[in-house]
Amino acid sequence: MDLSHLKVLVTGGGGGGVGAGVCQALDNFGATLIINELTIEKAVEASKLYKKAIPVQADLRSAEEVEKMFSEIKEKAGNINGLVNNAGVGLAKPVHEVEESEFDRTYGVNIRGTWLVTKYFVKQLLDNKIKGNIVNISSIHGFASQPNYSIYASTKSAIEGFTKAMAYELGGYGIRSNAIGPGLVHAEQNYELFKAFTSDPEKYEEDFIENQQALNHLIQPIDCGNTVAFLLSELSRSITGQVIYVDAGKTIMLCNREFTTYKER
Ligand SMILES: NC(=O)c1ccc[n+]([C@@H]2O[C@H](COP(=O)([O-])OP(=O)(O)OC[C@H]3O[C@@H](n4cnc5c(N)ncnc54)[C@H](O)[C@@H]3O)[C@@H](O)[C@H]2O)c1
């Protein structure tokens, strides 16, 4: 697969989890990366890992910073034709204990941020009559969820609605919109989140793989990246408005393995 014709903005591309996998896969296939991060230092650090990468800073919750970031991208890279809305924050807390500030942060990054970046990206495509491609990073929580994840899950369900409606709205301009829904992928933010229900996050991860997935391996960030690369490529030219779950079979299980092998004692 050759993606050397693509210039792709990856938001939160300095993150060690899904974002790193997306950047690595796109780099492997020859794309030029524009890596956004909350701080320019983090964006610069990440950019050093790839062959063609331009670092840019913006807190995606701020319309002003996002608009400024797009002017900078135009200056440094010209028009771009790919967007991966990866930046996101998690929240694992009982619904009745969530603070307003936590709600606002989760919705601010996951929804407002995704919309703001998409807005300026689509404007740039339409103003310059360019065809382009959007891939949003959802989650298996957009499909089904668990206790303590109501707020996070609702942001990911919203992402999936956004993905589908945009695919219809923008299809006539040759713009596609798809999403991937990762399952449990090893990432820094997860260990913090797991502490909401376990004192041993590593053991939790092991048990999850053994008991909660059809395939018994840990999903690597590059697995997500390769699926994103496919969705950005011409190989997927007839696919739009879809969500592909990169979840080692988590969402197709009616019950977990322990229950399947359940024996009455
Ligand atoms: N790791 C998983 O298991 C998993 C599973 C399903 C979905 N996801 C999704 O994948 C995406 C990446 O998550 P990750 O787990 O790799 O996390 P991560 O914390 O490793 O990376 C997220 C990155 O986003 C950046 N970011 C946060 N707020 C920002 C803001 N306001 N502006 C700009 N950048 C900001 C952070 O600096 C960080 O580098 C998220 O959308 C997440 O919901 C992750």
List keywords for this structure.
265 residues; alpha/beta; Rossmann fold; seven-stranded parallel β-sheet; 7 strands; globular; binds nicotinamide-adenine-dinucleotide
Contiguous uncertain segments of 5+ residues: none
Q: Could you give the distance between the termini?
A: 54 Å
What's the Cα radius of gyration? 18 Å
What integer is the average pLDDT?
A: 95
Bound molecules: nicotinamide-adenine-dinucleotide
Approximate helicity band: 40-55%
SSE inventory with pairings:
Blueprint: E1 7-10, H1 18-28, E2 32-37, H2 40-47, E3 53-57, H3 63-77, E4 82-85, H4 100-127, E5 133-137, H5 150-170, E6 176-182, H6 188-194, H7 201-212, H8 221-232, E7 243-246, H9 257-260
Parallel strand pairs: 1-2, 1-4, 2-3, 4-5, 5-6, 6-7
Helix pairs in contact: 1-8, 3-4, 4-5
Bound molecules: nicotinamide-adenine-dinucleotide.
Describe the structure.
β2, α2 and β3 form a beta-alpha-beta unit. The chain is 45% helix and 13% strand. With 265 residues, it is an alpha/beta fold. The relative contact order is 0.15. It has helices spanning 18-28, 40-47, 63-77, 100-127, 150-170, 188-194, 201-212, 221-232, 257-260; strands at residues 7-10, 32-37, 53-57, 82-85, 133-137, 176-182, 243-246. The model has no long low-confidence stretch (mean pLDDT 95). α3 (63-77) runs parallel beside α4 and α4 (100-127) runs parallel beside α5. It is globular and about 70 Å long. The chain has one domain: NAD(P)-binding Rossmann-like Domain (Rossmann fold, 3-Layer(aba) Sandwich), CATH 3.40.50.720. The protein has a 7-stranded parallel sheet with strand order 3-2-1-4-5-6-7, sandwiched between helices. Bound molecules: nicotinamide-adenine-dinucleotide. Residues 11-12, 14-19, 36-38, 59-61, 86-89, 109, 113, 137, 139, 182, 184-185, 187-190 line the site of nicotinamide-adenine-dinucleotide.
